[in-house]
Amino acid sequence: MNSQEIAVIFREIAEILELKGENPFRIRAYLRAAERVEQLGSELEVIADKGQLTEIPGIGVDLASKIRELLSTGSLTYYQQLKKEIPEGLLKMLNIQGLGPKTVKRLYQEFNIDSIEKLEKYARSGKLGQIEGIKEKTQKNILRGIELLKEGSSRLLLPQAIKIAEDFLSQLKKLKEVEKIEVGGSLRRQKETVRDIDILVASSKPLTVIEKFTRLAPVKEILSHGETKASVIAGGDNVQVDLRVVDKKSFGSSLLYFTGSKSFNIALRGYVQKKGYKINEYGVFSVNVGAHSRAPKPLAGKTEEGIFSLLKMSYIPPELREDRGEIEAALKDNLPKLVETKEMKGDFHVHSLYSDGKNTIQEMAEAAQKRGYKYLGISDHSQSLKVAGGLSIKELKDSIEEIEKINRKLKGIKVLAGTEVDILAEGGIDYPESILKELDFVIAAIHSGFKQPKAKQTKRIISACKNKYVNFIAHPTGGLWGVRDPYQIDLEEVLKAASDYGVALEINCHPERYDLNDISAMQAKQRGVKLALNTDSHSVEQLQLIDLGISVARRAWLTSSDIVNCMSLGELEKWLKK
Ligand code: DGT
Ligand code: CA
Asked: Which end of the chain is more exposed for a tag (fewer CB within 10 A), N or C?
């Protein structure tokens, strides 16, 4: 068991203790221990081996023995017993946004509500709003929270889906019967969320492939299996995986069909018909041969490239296949040259130990250097954001000094001193100009007052854009998958201000965030606003999340010239001076 997993268990213990109404100090002790354990990472085991766990601040004899038990056995008796004392449904209810342990406990004790399903029924009948202390609005928020949870769990976030698909692909590729293999569907189009995983195989022995597929390790349940396709439920996420096996001759046309999207397929079919052809999973055919020829020979079908070339259009990358004008553009050879990970020269939204990150600035810089970056912006939280260790002015000055020192040592990469400064309730900025002007760049973001009315929220962001030191707006809509709706803003107004004042908007690469999404990023590009792909990294590992931002950017038709992090250091420094 690793330190991350131990931290998850400690946090869950704290939640159970809270539901049981136990001493707040004990609860805090588990929460703090979770923090510490997580920060230590792989070092935890080294410390445990040396018998020095109790030397970690906040870890006493009792917690130390629990860590040892978890490290050596992978489970914890105390935790198992504790879980038995509380209905499982109560813990699940805690995942509902806006519902705290106190209310969950009360709902259970006074009204016997012990599951999300019961709570939903209760709320829908309007009875929840009649309970003393629960407002009509709270009832509405709880219902929305339940909906969000359901939406979140019915679709998988892209990185989770990629992981499962890679597992299947690497195992299937080893089979000698598998001649060609690709994923299709929304996963191949790199959508932010995916309902199921579609895999396509070319083989002359479909039955064997299907048989072996259903016996692979991640398969938990077989939903159906026939001669050319099978559906299974797999992995810890219980995701559906569909496999189709086709002949090599029609692999390209099947891949094109099963990659979709549905609306792209329909649009393409329309165009194909106008040209006097017919297209389906088996290939592209001349309409004239049709009925009287028993087995018409396809004009193309083996590869997608062959089909596009027969249709006299350039190859349309899967990310663009959404019927948003890509067919017309491909016919005119006018598709954008979509941005690629290798074009990225840096990252701006990166946290360090100064606020709530898990690594030092130096460690982050070295990791960025390994990725081949030419610059790395450090942007810790600002003073008002106490929960995330926001920096006082003094601490911010210290970090600037530290960055200068690091820059004297490091070669080939420049660390830029920045901040992720809070946009205050009335639109002000959480640091005075005297310190902002010492920084290389400024990212402004909303971290409070998420529920303000649209007009006010929009005004807040626009006034941040007007600040002459602000270069970026981070997570411009604030939405979190399955947790929080985006806050209300008038994106058109924000885009206008961003364009007027030369501010770039962020595509946040964190898998749980979805702002900007592909559609709003595309809108930004059309309004001449630059985009920045920002990982919001809180540790060195998270720098690789950039790939997720790349997926959004590609789906938004972005090229390197739309993206700030594709600039050379020289171009960037000029742009930052706005
Ligand atoms: P998802 O699974 O909801 O994340 O999205 P997709 O796009 O993967 O959808 P899925 O798995 O239902 O189907 C995979 C592809 O198969 C889809 O993108 C296009 C194609 N397809 C499925 N049903 C139809 C259909 O009724 N008409 C057409 N033209 N294509 C379809
Ligand atoms: Ca799918």
From this structure: C
Co-location of 125 and 108 in the same domain: yes
Q: What is the pLDDT of residue 1?
A: 81
274: domain CATH number is 3.30.460.10
Cα distance between residue 428 and residue 464, in whole Å: 7
* Pocket flag, ligand 1, residue 185 (CB < 6 Å): yes
Q: Are 205 and 142 in a shared domain?
A: no
- Beta partners for 454? none
264 vs 255: CA distance, rounded Å: 13
d(CA 110, CA 485): 30
Residue-wise pLDDT tens digits, 440-467: 999 999 988 888 889 999 999 999 999 9
Q: How far apart are the first and last CA of the chain?
A: 49
Tell me the pLDDT tens digit for each residue of 116-138. 999 999 999 888 888 888 888 78
Check whether residue 11 and residue 150 sit in a common domain: yes
Judge if 288 and 259 occupy the same domain: yes
How much distance in Å is there from the Cα of 197 to the middle of ligand 1?
11
- pTM of the entire structure? 0.79
Domain count, the chain: 3
Predicted local distance difference test score (pLDDT) of residue 291? 52
Ligand 1 pocket check: which of 197, 237, 265 to mutate, most ligand atoms within 8 Å of Cβ? 265
For ligand 1, atom 30: residue with the closest CA: 262
